[in-house]
Every structure is written in C-alpha cells, then in structure tokens.
C-alpha cells in the first residue's frame, strides 16, 4: 500500500459516496454471539468430558482465548495485521515444517508441537494464515483487469506449499479447508475466465493423481463410508454410525443435559473434538440443534454483511475469509456428525476442544469486530 | 469511471447475493438432514442407542433333577463350559477364528457354519461355537483371551448322563428348532425359548419339559462400547434390575434305579423290551428297551453317518419298544383264553383234552409245539406245559369274538395311555375287524392261531405287564405311570399322581382269577413247568412263557424282522408273590439267539424278581438298624426336602 488512495482501493471499487452506513449493532451482535456460543460450547463440553479433563483444560485456556478476542477486537489495528501478514504466513510455514519432522503424533497423525506443557496445532492457525494471505496478496497486487493464472502464480505457489505441508501430516481435512477458504475468497475476485477453465480441466486429473498416490487407505475408506456408514461399522464407519445414532436418538427435545448415553458411555470416541455436536444434539435434541444452527447462520450473515461494507480489499477479503472459515468449519463438521460428509478432522467452532482451534476462532471473531469498527468509522492509525 | 464502478459494484453485489443464497441453502440442507435424522427417524435411532448401552446377560436355569422312587438321582446336572462368540465385540472375525482354530485344533470352517446359523440375530447375542469344552481347552482359551476379543467362556448347567440312564424313558435334549420355537413362544409368552435352548425330545424330558425347564434369569447391565460395565449412571443408588434363574422342578419317578440296573444286566445281549409294574397301583418300577442310544450323542448332534446307522438298524434303537413295539404275544396270551373259557363254561378245572401233537380242523392240521404230543391234559397241565392243542380246542369252541371280548375287557387292543412315548394300541382281532380291514370274513382256520397268541394278535410289552398285573390284582386295570411327584425349586409339590384305575373287570370272577393264578404258579414253581427258570428261591412266582415263531407269520404286522432274522421271539410274563403281588414283569426278547421263552426269557424275569426281593430285604434290614431315620422305601415327607440328602444338584 505504497500509494495513497482517495477512496477505497482494490477490488471493492466503491466510491466514497456510495458507502452505505454500516450499523454498529453488528458489534453488539457479534459480541453476543461470541459469548453465547462460547458459553454453550463450554457447557456442552462439560457434559462431553465427563470422566476426562477436557472441560477444565478448556476453561484454563479461557484466559488466553478471551484476551486474544479482546486483543484483536479492540486493540490491534487492522493495518498492523495487514503489515505483518507475510511474516505470519512464513512463521506458520516454518512451524508446519517443524511439525512434520518432530511433531507429536496423536490420533494417527502428526499434528502437534509441544512447547513444554503447551501443545498447539499449527495447522489450525494455517487456516487463518490462508485468509490473511489471500487478503494481503490481492490488496497489494491490485489490477484492473481480471487476474490470469500467471498473475496468481506466487500466490498459488504459497497456497500449494501450505496445502502440502498440512496434507503430509496427514491432515486431509484441514488442508482441504485452507483450499476451500481460498476458493471462497477467490469467488469475489475477478479472474480471467480462461484461467478458470484451465484449472477446471486440470482438476479431475489432479484429483485422480491425489486419490491414487497421496490419499491413505483410511482416508479413502472415510469417503466410501460416507456412502454407506454400515460398510464397516466396527472400524472406519464407526464414528459416523455412532454419531448418527447419538444425534437421532436426541429426538425433539433431547435426552437432557448430561443424560446423553452414547457419548457418556464412550460409544463416541472422539466426542470431545470432532463429534462434539453429537453430544449436544443427543442431549438437547432438535430444538437445541436448531438454535445452534441459527446462531451460526446469523454469524455468517453478519460476516458477509461486514464484508459488503468494507472499503478496502484487505478488510473485505479478510472478512470473507474469516466468515468462510467459521461457516465452513461449522457446516462441514455438522455434515460429518450427521453422516452426510466423510469424516475429516474439522472441529466445530466454540464447541470442540482444542486450544489452537479455539484460539483461531477467537482471533477470527476479534478480526471481524475490528473490521466492522473500521468500517463504521472508528479509525485508529 | 462511475459506470465501470457501478458495473463492478453490481457484480460484487450479486456475488454477495449468491453467497448469501449458498449459505442459506447449506443451512437449509443441514436442517433438513437434522430433521430427517432426529424427527423422522428419531425413534429408530433411539431404539438403537438403547440397545447400544443396555446388555442383557442371560442366566441359564438348571433343569429339574430326576430322582427315582428312593431319592436316588437318575439324571442330574453338572457345569459345562461353552465357547461363545459375541459378534458385536469381535473386530476381526477371520483372525479370531484362525487363532481359535489353532488353539482348539479344529478347522475354522466349523465356526463359520455356526455363524451362518445365527444370521438374523442381534449382534450382542452370543453364538455358541463349541459346547462342552474340556478343562484343558478352557484354560487355553482363557490364557489367550487378550487375543480373542468378543470370545467368552460361559458356564452353564447341563445334563450329566451316567452310563445307566435309560435313554427311552428319560429321553434326551436337542437344540430347539427355530420354527417350533416360534410356535412354543406364542403359546407361552412369559417364559420364551431362545435360539440355542435345549428342549426335551422323547421320554420324560419331553413330556415334562414344562416342569423341568425352569425359567431363565437375566441381569441387565449398562455397558460402554467396549462391553465394560459402566458405573457412572446410577442415580440415588438405582440399579438395573436383575432376575434370578428359577431352577426347573424336580421329578420323582416310580422307577427303582437299582431294579432298573438289575433288569438291564439281566437283559444284557438281548433286543426287545422289559417292563416291571406294581400291580397294586400301576407304578412302573423299571422299563427298558434294547437296543438303546446314547443321549449325549443325540444332544451334541449326530453325524450323518451315525444318524443313518441308527435309522437303518432293524432293531430300531430309537423306538421305545415298551409301548411302541407291538409283538404277537404267543403263549403268554393263553391265560386270556383260559379265563374266557372258564367264564363261558366251556371248560372247568377238570376238563381234559387229548394232545397227540396236532389238532385237526377241517382239512388242516395245527401242530402243538411238542410234536410228540402231551397226552391227556387239563387246564393246569396244559398251562404248565404250554400245550397248544388244548388251547386250539378251547379257542375254537369259544370263537374269536368271545375271546376278543375278554381280551378287550383287560384293556387290550387299545392304548393304555401312559403318556410317555409313542404308544401302539396292539391288536385284538374280531370277525368284524377282519371284514373291515382285510375285506374277507373270518374263517374257522384263523381261530386256532389266535388261541395261542399268534395270528393277528399284537400286544405291547406294557400291555403284557398290565395284563398280568390285572390277573395278579384280581381284575383292576390300572394305568401305568412313571412320575410320582413333581416338586418345584422351593420344595412345594406341584404335581402328585393319583393312581388311576382304567376299569374294574366284571367279566371275570375272583374265583376264575384264583384258578388262573394257581395254574400260572405251577408254570414256574413246578419242576416240570416251562417257566421253571424263573423260579426264585424264597419267593412265590407265577408266570407264563411264550415263544413266538416269526417265519410262518406272514400276515403279521411285525414284518421288519422277518426277512432279517428267522429266530423266535422269546417272551415271559410273571408276577410275584402269587397272592397280593408286588411286582409284575413282562419280558420280550426279539429274535432271541439263546432260545425260546422258557430257556431265554424266563431266567431274565427270574433275575429281576430275585433282585426285587433282595433289594426289598436289604432296605428292610437297613431300616431296622436305623430306627430313627425314615424308612427308605417310603416317600419322604415334604419337610425333609427331597434334595437334602442327595448330592450332585446344581
């Protein structure tokens, strides 16, 4: 951002006069949603972690998570974020490489780095890094004509690096998520149609190559299990089937708080992470689940709304990226829990246990708030 | 510039719109799926989740014990070890089977077969892979349990067959047939059968199945996905209910175990049947059918080869010949003729006939078994020596229908309805019968054979014993019975047999009975009698021999043996003592290789009667020395519970 612009720059070529007045109730809404979902998520985790210490671990992390929310929401300016983006991305890549070579193996994949008593997952932060990367790239490399493939090569290269590093852990879910977030952001960029065509043509081949060479057998099975969870109920389809049972047995009103039997009796082995929603759904039934759906829907809508009113590329794309992150995590996890998507390791924001995931979510919410405040004119240099 | 901006801005706006629509669509899709799973199919999943967490452990009920009349165990239970497989908890079936096959030295295909049988069952129900494992096998499995998830060793009480268990009488157990099971469970929904249950087939086990089976108990436990019992869900001390198993009710038979053994030993090497009754009340003291079978083998399942051998054996091991075997009675039938003749005043005790060794009727000759003839015989000598000519004469004078009337008065020609195994009614021919069945009128030449108990006559060994019991007790036809009392697991009597008189003969007077009893006594106790081999020193015995020719009886129903073996059947029927008889015996030895009634069957009866008296004296002597304890040949009272002094209950 070397040249000064009079009005909004980059892709959101909205002249100043056409600015719609953004409403500040959005911040209130966001805060409410944040607190609400966080609260529900914590309480639910309490039920899900009977017999294990997840709830307490999550509450201990509250200090960090809450402060990061406040930090990014009110203290750190968006310009600083933009400035340090590339450094951040580089850091993440470095961490991902470290993970690959010396990370802790948990649950069949190498995802964690331990720093003494603290362990964290770089791949979770990588999602945020992707969103930031995209936003920063397009705001720094504006052009009036549609972007062509060769224009995007550096970006694509970095994206590919991130993807591969995560994919090699192996973490198919998170890697895919990064790509999906990037795609959502791409959707708001004018791209040369021919380039899109080329990519689309190449896609089947790439997919085939991936399927045969890089996907591990259990991952293939996970996809297959989507079609028929009864295929191998003892092994790979187990989670999906048990999750379905848990959700379905919730009925209209659920079994009541702490009364979910599937999870409590360890029929759901991943109940505190990926399948956390099964616990919630089993205990609170249909009405509870609808409530959560509504909350996330509202959240996504607010994110989109914020993005619409953004005056510059960076904030706009970032808002879209963050919105995509939250929405995609939510919808894929829910779909997984309900048996209409392969089992991938995507956590549910606010609900799943995990300090890195939680931190990512809190930072994301914080960023949304700060973007919104930026839009409504409360500027800090 | 503005225009471009406006174009672009509308483009952007439209993308936002698309984005919103997409988000809405996705959420709607998720909502729909949620509705589908939770509301539409909610009940189904609820059901599955229940089944996930509650497991029902069946507690098998031990079958009721079968005691003899003195409280000796005839058939009891012992713990048996079975290898079971619970599909829900087995991860890798093939590997598990391979390991099992190696440990137990059997082919894995056997286990596959058992699995197929239990196809439609829920996955948490155990499937039995191997019954009755040895101690060694049990320890091998237990030692390797860590490699065999989902495999368990279950203990259950099972019948413990000793060597002396009479197979036809007691019967055997087999796994319940699934189709029959559904019918049974419909009739009795409170105590249903499960697949794999053993039910009685044949004999006591079958007839008294309802009493013997007891009621299984169960424990409900809450388990987690590893099948481990979970403790965390008991609020306020509330626990899942458990119901104890109710053992089956015990049966007290009329059988005397030692007498039964004596009968078996005496009858060793022969085929046919032995029946021992108490003429005063109809108790069956012993009943034997040879050849028999091994109830153990029947329970575990026979190979095709073994089954075929059983079915093709001409002596029919599976048939209970005491009531299911019909034989021509031969000379054993002669007392019936005698009584008919006396009552009809065709003869009296002094009437004589001459036996030259044959009897002429029309242009046919009927031979006496003694070709040289007996000379002049009266009733006593004719019975003693079993002179056929005497009875030919008498029979012809009586005519078949009059004979039949007396025979039927004794309950012959119809089933005695002992309600044990299959019962044949026997056959007492009449002229009407012949017309009906053979479409040919009775000819005079048919009668002589009937008079000596051959021709169309058929009787079961039970009927023979009953006949002689009636002679002994002076005309009471009693229903033979096997079960005296049934007591449930708390000692209450749930069934007690009342002696049942089928009929009291009026056709034959007490004097006639007395005469016949005396002649029968002579048969055994006179040194010239044909039944002298049945004589028991120190006791009085009355009886009659019979030797039934097989070859010449072409119209006889007992066809199966004719082509195979041309030896005679040896028969003997007796009672002792002659007055106020306590025991009546009937022996039928099919195709006897030793000899006829006198040579082969009579000694058997003699041994059995001797055993009876010996046992009786032993018990009396024992009772005399233990004046405080209850006499052992009396039924124990209800308070001194029948189970108390006997070991080996389970």
Describe the 3D structure.
The complex is a heterodimer of chains A (381) and B (650). Chain A has helices at residues 25-48, 54-75, 78-102, 122-140, 149-167, 172-186, 193-214, 217-227, 238-248, 261-264, 276-308, 313-337, 355-375; strands spanning 104-106, 109-115, 118-120. Chain A is mainly α and 381 residues long. In chain A, helix 4 (122-140) packs antiparallel against helix 5 and helix 12 (313-337) packs antiparallel against helix 13. Chain A is globular, with a radius of gyration of 21 Å. With 650 residues, chain B is α+β, with helices and mostly antiparallel strands. Chain B is elongated and about 135 Å long. In chain B, strand 18 and strand 19 (493-496) form a beta hairpin. Chains A and B meet through helix 9, helix 10, helix 11 and helix 12 of A and helix 1 and helix 2 of B.
What is the gyration radius of chain A calculated from CA atoms?
21 Å
Q: Termini distance of chain B?
A: 101 Å
Regarding quaternary structure, what we see is heterodimer
Name the beta content range of chain B.
15-25%
Q: Strand pairing plus helix content of chain A: what structural class? A: mainly alpha
> How many alpha or pi helices of chain A?
13
Report the mean per-residue pLDDT of chain A as an integer: 75
Give start-end ranges of low-pLDDT stretches of chain A: 1-22, 229-236
Shape descriptor of chain B reads elongated
Run of helices and strands of chain A: HHHEEEHHHHHHHHHH
Class per helix and strand makeup of chain B: alpha+beta
The greatest inter-chain interface is formed by:
A-B, 51 and 44 residues
Strand order in the largest sheet of chain A: 1-2-3
Gyration radius of chain B, in Å: 35 Å
Give the DSSP E fraction of chain A (strand runs of 2 or more residues). Answer: under 5%
């Amino acid at each position: 951002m070397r040249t000064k612009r009079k009005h909004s720059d980059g892709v959101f070529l909205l002249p100043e006069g056409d600015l719609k007045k953004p409403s500040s109730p959005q911040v209130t809404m966001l805060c409410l949603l944040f607190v609400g979902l966080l609260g529900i998520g914590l309480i639910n985790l309490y039920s899900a972690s009977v017999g294990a210490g997840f709830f307490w671990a999550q509450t201990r992390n509250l200090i960090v998570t809450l402060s990061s929310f406040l930090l990014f929401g009110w203290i750190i300016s968006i310009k600083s974020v933009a400035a340090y983006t590339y450094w951040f991305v580089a850091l993440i890549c470095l961490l991902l490489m470290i993970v690959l070579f010396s990370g802790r193996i948990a649950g069949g994949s190498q995802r964690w780095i331990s720093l003494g008593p603290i362990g964290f997952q770089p791949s979770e932060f990588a999602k945020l890094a992707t969103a930031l990367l995209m936003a920063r790239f397009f705001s720094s490399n504006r052009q009036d004509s549609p972007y062509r493939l060769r224009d995007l090569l550096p970006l694509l290269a970095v994206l590919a690096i991130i993807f591969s590093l995560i994919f090699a852990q192996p973490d198919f879910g998170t890697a895919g998520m990064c790509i999906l977030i990037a795609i959502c952001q791409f959707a708001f960029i004018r791209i040369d149609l021919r380039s899109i065509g080329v990519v689309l043509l190449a896609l089947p081949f790439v997919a085939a190559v991936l399927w045969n060479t890089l996907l591990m057998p259990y991952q293939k099975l996970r996809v297959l299990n989507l079609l028929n969870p009864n295929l191998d109920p003892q092994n790979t389809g187990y989670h999906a089937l048990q999750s379905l049972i848990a959700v379905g047995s919730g009925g209209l009103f659920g079994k009541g708080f702490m009364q979910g039997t599937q999870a409590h009796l360890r029929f759901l082995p991943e109940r505190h992470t990926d399948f956390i929603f099964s616990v919630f759904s089993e205990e609170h039934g249909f009405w509870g689940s609808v409530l959560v759906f509504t909350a996330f829907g509202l959240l996504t809508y607010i994110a989109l709304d914020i993005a619409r009113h953004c005056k510059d590329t960076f904030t706009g794309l970032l808002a879209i990226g963050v919105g995509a992150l939250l929405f995609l995590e939510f919808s894929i996890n829910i779909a997984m829990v309900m048996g209409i998507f392969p089992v991938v390791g995507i956590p549910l924001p606010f609900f799943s246990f995990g300090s890195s995931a939680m931190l990512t979510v809190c930072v994301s919410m914080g960023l949304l708030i700060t973007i919104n405040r930026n839009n409504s004119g409360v500027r800090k240099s | 510039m503005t225009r471009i901006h406006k174009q672009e801005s509308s483009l952007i706006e439209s993308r936002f719109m698309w984005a919103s629509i997409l988000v809405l669509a996705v959420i709607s899709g998720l909502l729909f799926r949620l509705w589908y799973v939770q509301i539409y199919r909610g009940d189904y999943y609820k059901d599955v989740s229940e089944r996930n967490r509650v497991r029902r452990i069946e507690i098998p009920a031990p079958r009721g014990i079968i005691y003899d009349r003195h409280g000796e165990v005839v058939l009891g239970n012992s713990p048996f070890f079975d290898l079971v497989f619970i599909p829900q908890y087995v991860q890798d079936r093939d590997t598990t089977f391979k390991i099992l096959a190696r440990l137990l030295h059997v082919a894995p295909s056997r286990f596959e077969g058992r699995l197929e049988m239990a196809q439609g069952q829920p996955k948490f129900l155990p499937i039995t892979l191997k019954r009755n494992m040895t101690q060694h096998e049990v320890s091998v499995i237990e030692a390797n349990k860590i490699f065999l998830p989902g495999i368990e060793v279950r203990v259950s009480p099972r019948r413990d067959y000793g060597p002396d268990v009479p197979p036809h009488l007691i019967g055997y157990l087999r796994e319940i047939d699934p189709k029959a099971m559904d019918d049974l469970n419909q009739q009795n929904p409170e105590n249903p059968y499960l697949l794999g249950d053993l039910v009685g087939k044949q004999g006591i086990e079958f007839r008294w199945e309802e009493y013997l089976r007891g009621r299984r108990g169960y424990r409900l436990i809450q388990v987690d996905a590893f099948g481990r019992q979970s403790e965390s869900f008991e609020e306020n001390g509330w626990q899942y209910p458990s119901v104890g198993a109710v053992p089956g009710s015990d049966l007290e038979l009329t059988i005397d175990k030692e007498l039964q053994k004596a009968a078996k030993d005496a009858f060793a090497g022969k085929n046919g049947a032995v029946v021992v009754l108490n003429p005063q009340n109809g108790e069956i003291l012993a009943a034997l059918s040879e050849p028999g079978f091994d109830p153990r083998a029947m329970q575990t399942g026979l190979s095709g080869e073994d089954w075929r051998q059983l079915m093709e054996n001409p002596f029919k091991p599976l048939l209970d010949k005491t009531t299911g075997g019909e034989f021509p009675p031969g000379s054993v039938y002669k007392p019936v003729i005698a009584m008919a003749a006396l009552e009809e005043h065709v003869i009296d005790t002094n009437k004589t006939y001459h036996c030259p060794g044959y009897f002429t009727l029309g242009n046919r000759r009927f031979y006496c078994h003694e070709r040289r003839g007996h000379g002049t015989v009266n009733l006593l000598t004719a019975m003693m020596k079993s002179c056929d000519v005497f009875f030919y004469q008498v029979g012809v004078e009586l005519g078949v229908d009059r004979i039949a009337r007396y025979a039927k008065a004794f309950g012959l020609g119809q089933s005695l309805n002992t309600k044990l195994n299959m019962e044949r009614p026997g056959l007492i021919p009449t002229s009407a019968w012949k017309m009906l069945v053979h479409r040919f009128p009775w000819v005079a030449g048919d009668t002589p054979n009937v008079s000596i108990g051959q021709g169309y006559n058929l009787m079961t060994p039970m009927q023979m014993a009953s006949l002689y019991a009636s002679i002994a007790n002076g005309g009471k036809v009693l229903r033979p019975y096997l079960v005296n009392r049934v007591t449930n697991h708390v000692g209450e009597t749930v069934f007690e047999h009342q002696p049942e008189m089928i009929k009291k003969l009026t056709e034959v007077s007490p004097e006639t009975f007395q005469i016949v009893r005396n002649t029968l006594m002579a048969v055994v106790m006179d040194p010239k009698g044909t039944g002298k081999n049945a004589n028991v020193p120190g006791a009085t015995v009355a009886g009659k021999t019979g030797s039934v020719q097989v070859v010449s009886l072409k119209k006889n129903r007992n066809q199966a043996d004719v082509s195979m073996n041309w030896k005679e059947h040896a028969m003997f029927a007796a009672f002792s003592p002659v007055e106020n008889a306590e025991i009546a015996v009937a022996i039928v030895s099919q195709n006897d290789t030793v000899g006829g009634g006198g040579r082969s069957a009579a000694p058997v009866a003699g041994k059995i009667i001797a055993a009876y008296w010996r046992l009786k004296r032993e018990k009396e002597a024992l009772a005399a020395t233990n004046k405080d304890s209850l006499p052992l040949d009396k039924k124990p009272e209800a308070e001194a519970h029948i189970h108390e002094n006997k070991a080996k209950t389970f």
